[in-house]
Amino acid sequence: MATPLTDNALVSRRNVAVEIGVLRPPPVTNRYIPACVVGCLSAHAPSPGDARPGQVIRRASGVTTTSGGDRVEVSIEHLRFTAGQNLSLLPGLDGVEPSLIRDSVQLLLDAGASFVDVLLGQITGRSPYDLDDPLLIELLSGDLDEMQGALLIYPDAGGPVSVRPRPAADPNDRLQRLLDLVKRQSLAWSERHQIALFDAPDVPAEELTSFFDRCGSADALMCRWEGEPTRLAAHGWRSAAAVVAGASLLHIDDLASTTVGFPVNLGPGRAVHADRRDRLAAPPRRAAPPPGLPLTTVRLHPKHDTATVEGDLSLRRPAGAWTLPALRTAKAIHYVIRRATEPFVFRPVQGMELYALTSALTLALEPYQISGVLTGPDGEGGPDINGVVIRDADTPGFLIDVAAQLRPWCHQVRMKVTLHQNQEPSVSLSA
């Protein structure tokens, strides 16, 4: 006869070892990221995350195969810094391959950013200036996908960075790096509602004109310094793009607020004597670029360690029409429309659902209408929202047309929302 089970019979008599400790809670990564400095570590550079584990958001490493069949080691680090934290482990000018990443993070924090994210890739055989490398772009894409709407600063794009009065590389080579970066990333920046910022190399006017003709439309800003020779010697080696981003972050809660005219604190620059340029045989002061180019100019104060943005034109076509605040506002509206349509992906394609969708879009855009940055096409009332049901047996869905005007820039914009059942919504913006 079987012995009935008792409570004691269910208890194992084996010894069990239990380890008790404290586990660091995982960081919150879904927080809105206003700005991120993007860069590439030298192949043999130390990992900043090893020395600053408290600043690590995510780390990953492995081995991959290039298009040529070579196996290379890759790693990625996503870090976050706040004011007062030690930045010495970030790539700087003291490295074998000088970098502006450390100084750019400091500029953003000095400008008033509550925190700054840093995304660094590392690939065997790549330098900090290979930001146009397809493998590096693919490596960083996953983390950048999570930074919807962020300002992306590329301080080392178009490098090598010059730490002496004379250029460290052929300016035309630097311009080609920037052109490759824009062409390979412009679509991704647009899809992620991001705006990229980088610095203009010192090249002849005709070369800059050729660059803008060849790069096409992009949600990006090319930034450059202006100022007295001694002030340029003190601060002109830094990233003007980081200053423009810092000026934008001064009014992070007001998308439509201009970045022009507000002083940005730069911190101390290099100690420069009045005759230092002559003693070091520095090249003559560069000529001003021709008028009409969509360049963003940062002017240094003649006496103080501050700078102001003079014009913040983006590379989006038509040239000269889209300033940074206008572009940020358009992207925010684009993002809000996309988020409002996502819950309807799995809804039945019916007339009542179309009415619910247009009502959801009206409600999502209401804050922009109340603030005065979004009106109807004629400048009055709210945006015109019209929709139809796509009665297709294979791919049924909804087609929504949003016509509006962005104020105070008086930009006529039209957003076309295509929503097919069980597929991600598509939102296209035309102006």
Instruction: List the helices and strands in order.
Output: EHEEHEHEHEHEHHEHEEHHEEEEE
Kindly name the structural category.
Answer: alpha/beta
Overall geometry comes to: globular
* Strand order, largest beta sheet: 2-3-4-1-5-6-7-9-10-8
Radius of gyration: 26 Å
Uncertain residue segments: 1-13, 16-30
What percentage of residues falls in helices of 4 or more residues?
25-40%
Oligomer: single chain
Number of domains: 2
Mean pLDDT: 83
Ends apart, CA distance between termini: 86 Å
What's the main sheet like? 10 strands, mixed
- Beta strand %: 15-25%
Number of continuous helical runs: 10
Query: What is the total tally of β strands?
Result: 15
SSE layout:
Elements: E1 35-41, H1 48-51, E2 56-65, E3 71-81, H2 101-110, E4 116-123, H3 134-145, E5 151-153, H4 171-191, E6 195-199, H5 205-215, E7 220-226, H6 229-235, H7 240-249, E8 264-265, H8 276-279, E9 295-300, E10 306-312, H9 324-341, H10 351-371, E11 374-375, E12 384-390, E13 397-406, E14 411-420, E15 426-430
Parallel strand pairs: 1-4, 1-5, 5-6, 6-7, 7-9
Antiparallel strand pairs: 2-3, 3-4, 8-10, 9-10, 11-13, 12-13, 13-14, 14-15
Helix pairs in contact: 2-7, 4-5, 9-10
